[in-house]
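User: New here, any thoughts?
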Amino acid sequence: MAITTISNLEKKDLENQGYRVVGNHSVVKVCHWTKKSLKSEDVCYKCQFYGIKSWGCVEMSPTWLCDHRCVFCWRNTKYSWPKWIGPVDNPKDIVEGCIKAWQGLLNGFKGNERTDQERFKQTRDPLHFAISLTGEPTMYPKLPEMIDVLKEKKISSFLVTNGTIPEMIDKLTKHQPTQIYVSVYGPAKAIYEKTAMPLPKQAWDNLQATLNKLGEFNRSVVRLTLTKGYNMVEPELWGKFLSKLDMTFVELKGYMWIGHSRERLTIDAMPTHEEIQNFAQKIAQTGGFKIIDNKANSRVVLLMREGTKAERFLEYDAEGKVTMPAIM
């Protein structure tokens, strides 16, 4: 029977992939965009869209397990498991352990002549946690307490969930991350199940319960990871589905042919940025949204619905382009 504790063999496998294991079940890794931002080469789309400083962002997860086996996932889906079994680490230990491990992974940048040293100094006091690295974070029983620890440390947080544990989502409405993302893999049950291959039989119904809670969060995003031949279909159906939800923003992200997903899919499943833009336009027209930003090398488009709570987060530059004030 699988348990949440990471074995020595699994730890070695994860470390070979660049992860560091914290405690019994948490993992942390340095993001590609963190490395690029430290050398002033580029930033993550979350920096462009929301002002998250990529060089101060700790990408982690309080669990390495997930209850989905998404066809597009770059992770190894052998680490899929339907529920939590085993020890539960202290939230403060997880946060402090992830910061220490993340800083250790970045130490080599101090001596790199291409590193922006002012940005490197800021890594000694990280500003943000992206709780999205691997696994399904809402499986961790003490997630609300972990969010509270981050707030006490004045660290903002973006939490990404697949929405299959609505009872945890309900708890989080009282312990809110800075922004919650709910990943949606299809506008109808059949498309969703084909793409996500969830382990829980009631996953689709649980997702709907989670989506119905979005209006209770200060900032929320519905994210679509679009994969050709699977869920990048029927944009009008997507538009109608999304139009019923009370989220702040919608992100359309193109599947990237990387990692273990290459064992399941061919490169043809990866849409171009132009295809994502065209798909987003059709969704916008049907669902009453407008496109407010995009980042080509991340193949991502950002939508919002006019006249909603999203408006209060927006600013406009001298040319009338939508911007958002930095979260940190």
